[in-house]
Amino acid sequence: MNKTHYTYLLTNLSPKSKKKYYIGFRSCYGNPENDPYYGSSSDKQFLEEIISNTNNVEKIIIAVWPTRKEAHAHETQLIREHRADISELFYNNPYTRENKIPTKDRPLCSVCRVKPAAINYVKNDIVYYRSKCNECNGIKKRHKPFVPRWKQKGYKQKTTCDRCGFRAKYPSQIVVFHVNGNLDDATITNLRSICLNCVVEIDKDDSPWKQGDLMRDF
Question: pTM value?
């Protein structure tokens, strides 16, 4: 039997306590509607009001996913959308794992504006925070692979110069030029593969030819 992966919402309906919610994800065998699992947490309030009192808890299946990874990603998205990790209406991480400091007393991350800022250090019982959360502090700026416009249009750079017939040993010895000087015109008739020697001559001749997109310098 294949596993089912799903996200769910728990609602505490007990008249003796404040109405609170919990967002989670779960993998189980069979129909999620019949899964008796209600979640896990080290939070004392969650254990007392949810785990030990399931008769007063409403469980709603939000979505079913083909993989556990997708279910986890959806849970993360829901927590961010509802700010469940810092809201007092949710059981999701009501305290930080570091020194049990209430998240409501912490500033929000200056980048994502969703998660609490990371703790920098504690001195004389005073907590000093970073400007970003742990996740944003670890994110490195990533750039998509650069693809020149002529390559996007399907043109393949040649190994022989279209101007002088030079045969290149390395790809870097040949560059692509636009005959009419318009880099947006990537039609085959407007593109030429030119060797570096001819590049110098083209520049000296004051030709309208222009070299195609260069690699970005990040």
Answer: 0.43
